[in-house]
Write a structure and sequence with these properties.
The complex is a heterodimer of chains A (about 325) and B (about 190). Chain A has about 325 residues and is an alpha+beta fold. Chain A has seven helices and twelve strands. The longest helix of chain A is centred in the N-terminal third of the chain and has 21 residues, at about 85-105. Chain B has a single domain (about 10-190), classed as Rna Polymerase Sigma Factor, Chain: A, CATH 1.10.1740. The longest helix of chain B is centred in the C-terminal third of the chain and has 26 residues, at about 165-190. Chain B is globular. In chain B, about 45% of the residues are buried. The chains are: A alpha+beta (about 325), B mainly alpha (about 190).
Chain lengths: ~325, ~190
Amino acid sequence: MNEKMLAEQLERDIERLLDGRALPDDPTRDADYQQALEAAQMLAQHDMSPESRVRKSLRQNLLQRISTQRKVWSPREKGAYPMKPRTKSFVFVGILTAFLLTAMTLPPVRAFAQDLLKEIGPYIIVSETEVPWEEPPADFNPTPIPGGDGEPSEMIAATADPNVDPSSGPTPIPSNPNAQTLTPQEALTQLGFKALLPNYIPDGYALIVDPKFVHAVGDRISSSMVYTTSEDAYLQITQTTFDDTSRFAFYVDDEKVIELIIRGQDGLFMEGGLPMTVLDENGNNVDIPLNCLMWEEGGHFFMMTASELTQAEMLKIAEGLK
Amino acid sequence: MTTTLPLLANETDLAARAAGEPSAFAIIYDHYFPKVYNYVRYRVRDVDVADEITALVFERVLTGIGSYRPQKAPFGAWLFSIARNAVHDHHRSTSRHPWLPLDLIAAHPAADPLPEEAVEQKDASARLLQAVRQLAPREQDLIALKFASGLENKEIAKVVGLSESHVGVILFRALRRLRNLLGDKENSHE
């Protein structure tokens, strides 16, 4: 018998041992095989679990959690959002910007991760469609967004009006006294941060953010360009620096994660991979899944989110960044 | 004394219900806790750390079980992928896990804790663990997966990303080596 055949025989014998069945004596067994089998017999009889001190308490806690948990989000059908179109776009911008910038300052959320699909940039992609409700951190305090009467926020009002000087406008969302806002050119000359800009954007999409769309908080620098259409289709392209010490989790349905090459780099496309909770005109939370493209390039993390664009269109935009 | 338990007959159905049904999750927990604990215990030296990692594994199982897809992998393979990742995370970290759900453990201390020494002082058990830890990390991993989880070699192959035959040969060599290590220790005790 060669080694492979011995290994196959060993697997069969180990299964017998693990089933609690004894193996008959066989004086013709190969000496090496006999050694392996003796070790397997010892291991099969070895149970260390009685030494655990948490078995009962952990069980009790987990079962309690099942009884009390509730969902964070559930995707809805497209077009089912009872929100004025313009308000929806503005709320998108505010919430997503708040999410991205706040995420930079939060501690890692690895405690909630389970089935790791991939690590990319500062994010770990984990397989999950439903997670237990977690109260937001005490310091999570995004700027309130006017919703009930459909009035756009102060920030958006300032940036949407070309006659208003954005540099003298109100504080961006979320406010951070240490944050700098710069134009791409200023970011390049002052911080050495080269914000990649698209040379292809699908028809109908218009940039709606402040020309100073590069934000710097300490060593963390990010650019964030937001485009919308008259039909409220939404597109955002972000580029951020990151370090290797913090990780943030994306919970996704692993069946909707596609690994691909973006600009020569490993990347991911996640269909509906970034569900966003936004406020409708009545002040209610609604959940909207965004398609998401992400990759790491030159030490920067890139993420593109879009409400209506396909993977192919998003890839075309990504390939056109310069 | 054996670590093996019969396979759960309706495992897929239990997994589908476990996210929202405590009784279904309890069956899975009771079946897999010893297996996961043993796997983790083979991979880490400290009893408390083994408890913490095992707690983390079941925390992850609970939060992820709703997304488990039986057509992709047997439930045991899915669960032990989580366990393996948790152990790898531990080995990668330089400090104890500040992000572990320790509140799960602290809130309900076990009524009859079993001190580490009570187990480690059992000579045979301690020697076996010590010998396993002299194997290469990959050999340790495969032995822990095989004897703690009871997974078939083809399932282990999926978990660790090797071919089935490669898993079998590594296990065969590792067990031979383990027996030799144990023989050496037995001789040194005499």
